[in-house]
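sorry for the late reply, my laptop died twice this morning and i had to redo everyting from scratch. anyway the thing you sent over, i finally got around to it. pasting the sequence first so we're on the same page, its 86 residues, then the predicted structure underneath. double check i copied it right bc i was rushing
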Amino acid sequence: MSTQTISIDFPNDIFLALNESETDLKNRIKLTLAVELYKSKKLTIGKAAQLSGMTRLDFEKELSKNKISISNLTEEDVLGDIEKLK
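ok and here's the structure:
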């Protein structure tokens, strides 16, 4: 898998204010971005998990912990599927 690097500049005191290492902050930013892109239906759950650097199961657990549905199916989708199965 090839990757691309994006740089973000932060004031030096941000790390002190957050009391986090650079690595911890990078991981939190990736997870937050992945969750937001998943919630806005820009990424599938698998791609969002990949972006976060987590396994799909761990990403699903993170979504569940934050009360975010692991399914993007709407009620209409489910009812449509039921009709197709009849």
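Residues 13-85 form one domain.
thats about all i looked at so far, will dig more tmrw
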